Amino acid sequence: MLWKGWVSRNTWFRKMNSSTPEREPDTMRLGDGYYGWLPRSLHGQLILFTTLSLVVAVLGFGGYTASKQSQMADDSMTAQMAALAKNLADVSANYIVTEDLSAIEDVVTPIASFQNILSILVVDANGNPLSEMLNQEGVINPHYGGERIKLPADAKPFIQNKDGLFFGWNLHLAPHAAAEAWQPVTAGNLLGWVRITYSLDSVHEIIRQIWKDAMLFSGLAIGAALTLLVIMLKTPMQALRSATRFAENLDENLGKHMPVSSATVETKALGSALNSVSTRLQSQEKLLQENAGVTRLILDNVIDGIVTIDKFGMIQSFNQSASTMFGYAANEVIGRNIKMLMTETYFDAFDTYLEHYRAKGTAEIIRSGNEMEGLCKDGSTFPAELAVSHSARLGKPLLIGVVRDITERRRVDKLKSEFVSTVSHELRTPLTSISGALGLVTGGALGEIPGQAKQLLDIAYKNSLRLAHLIDDLLDMDKLIAGKASFDLQAQALMPLLEHTLEAIRAYGDRYQVRFALLERADDAQVRVDGGRLQQAFGNLLSNAAKYSPQGGQVAVAVRQSNGKVRVEVIDHGPGIPDEFRERIFQKFTQADSSDTRSKGGTGLGLAISKEIIEHMDGRLGFDSEEGQGACFYFELPVCAVD
Ligand code: ADP
After folding, report:
1. How remote is the CA of residue 373 from the centroid of ligand 1, in Å?
2. 375, 424, 552, 600: which sits with the fewest CB atoms below 10 Å from its CB?
3. Is the pTM of this model over 0.70?
4. What pLDDT does residue 3 have?
5. Which structural domain range is residue 553 located in?
6. Residue 495's domain is classified under what CATH number?
């Protein structure tokens, strides 16, 4: 408590008088005045505690001893005086009877000269003085003409007048305090009294002497104890101070070893512990530096731009690739809002995203595939793909954005689709004539064809149709993406369109031994669509469902209308959509299992085309599926009033 109070007073003092910046609470340094006081204050306290305890011990001991000694001295003097009085009474009894006053004086005079005796009085039975001798500093003088004194009622010896003598404790006794020893003189009856008055000065002297000795002893003991304490504390204190200095400057002392003091087991243990901390910290720091170096190297060499921002969108870090991509040096963007790196189109979406992040504390993870437009320092823009994850640094939330420049990918995509489109156009005309010719031949327009030749021609005809289908799909996709496909939007009833498609696809279902069942209908549903295109998309969902259904299975169709929308579901009991394929399913030329191309005859374009078609008609195409549990592909369209 005392120590805490001391430190806090010093802390307060420093705060009041110092202009140095505030340090973290509880941090004290040896050199800055707080801790520097430790040895001095500790010495101060030790002196105080030692002195106090020794003074208490000496007072207690001195008081007790003085009390005992003076009691003993007093007791022995009392006993001595009582014995003297008794002797005197015995000796003087005859002389009192004979009233031989000079004989009494002869007896009393030598006794009166005894040490400590102040006076001796002999009286008769009525209290009339017979003889009185005064000892005045060694000179014995008789005192005549004393008055009659009042005698005690009982003829018993006693001691009186010891008031003023406080055994032991009182250092300021009244000087010359005296006591009286009374002794009756008897010979059958009371003859008189002997009273010896004696000084208590010698008892006082004993008490004074004891106190003097006690004080001297306590002074010596305090001095010796302090010297011993200082000697004993000096070495561990020094060891503590150097250990503290070592710990304070641990940054510079990392890896170094301080000399371990063996003054006490504790200082030795402290020194060894600090040395091992220093070694461990050094190796950990080395490891951290190495890791940081490797991380920095990775970050700077990764092809993607990596930008971290806080929850307010302020840029915290900017790697080398991001610098190259956006044309800014890291120090030009750090601390500024990330909006400087995107075109205005994305501001609202970004603000909403951050608001959500701040409110919920968790960021919606954006995986790759999210495309945006990056804004460079020179004002130019580039297409970018963005992935965002969130983490925390020093307890503060952090969003990590990975930006990929997809200019090249877009260019290659464009080249690819231009190439596909050109090739498709070039192939279509000759292919049409080839399949037309093969159709005529296999149809028997040119007469009977021998068995084996017919077989080959049939295969060639089927494959030419497949090829024509692929090319149609490709051209279709091409047109849809380029926005060149024409849509003749008409408000019309939905159910007839769906029923026609179901009717038309029945034969296709038979091929896979799959039945189509229209389980729920919405006869009132009116939609504004291009009938042919809608049937194309719906037909594609149905054909997929049939292709992937088990033999003898059923594909259910359910149509429901609610909240201004109509939803058409195509449900099968096939293998479902594998998790890893879900993100790519609507991309062109993608198939969960590439062997499907051969086994099921698909192109990987059907869903991409269907999605484009439905979205062109303000609808939405999606699916629900659990792997192994079948799939439910659906599209939703806004319902409309009849024209
Ligand atoms: P394809 O012409 O190959 O059918 P799609 O674009 O229509 O091309 O389909 C792409 C891929 O999606 C298919 O190859 C298949 O892997 C998967 N798929 C589509 N529909 C279903 C379904 N009903 N059940 C399981 N997988 C399906």
Report:
1. 31
2. 552
3. no
4. 39
5. 488-638
6. 3.30.565.10
Task: Identify whether residues 382 and 440 lie together within a single domain.
Answer: no
Under-70 pLDDT residues of the chain: 1-44, 46, 161-176, 362-369, 593-602, 642-643
Answer whether residue 101 is part of any domain.
yes
Closest CA to 519 of 486, 567, 476, 557: 557
Rounded distance from Cα 304 to ligand 1 centre (Å):
32
- Residue 493 pairs with which residues in a beta bridge? 526
Q: Is 326 helix (H, G, I), strand (E, B) or coil?
A: helix
Counting from 1 in the atom list of ligand 1, the atom nearest the Cα of 605 is 6
548 lines ligand 1 (CB under 6 A): yes
The confidence score (pLDDT) of residue 501 equals 95
In a domain, 73, yes or no: no
> How far apart (Å, rounded) are the C-alpha atoms in residues 440 and 434?
10
CA atoms within 13 Å, Cβ hemisphere of 85: 31
438 in any annotated domain = yes
* CATH code of the domain containing 445: 1.10.287
DSSP single-letter state for residue 638: E
Among 579, 591, 594, 633, the mutation site with the greatest number of ligand 1 atoms within 8 A of its Cβ is: 591
Same-domain check for residues 465 and 522:
no
What's the pLDDT at 175? 56
Cβ-based neighbour number of residue 508 at 10 Å: 15
Task: Please enumerate in sequence order all residues whose Cβ is within 8 A of that of 166, keeping only pairs 6 or more positions apart, or say none.
Answer: 173
Residue 313 three-state SS: coil
Q: What is the model's pLDDT at position 517? A: 96
- Residue 60, both tokens: 């207690």
DSSP string, 164-199: T--TTT-SSPPTT-EEEEEEEEEESEEEEEEEEEEE
What distance lies between CA 281 and its chain's CA centroid? 20
Among 173, 208, 243, the domain boundary falls at 208
In a domain, 161, yes or no: yes
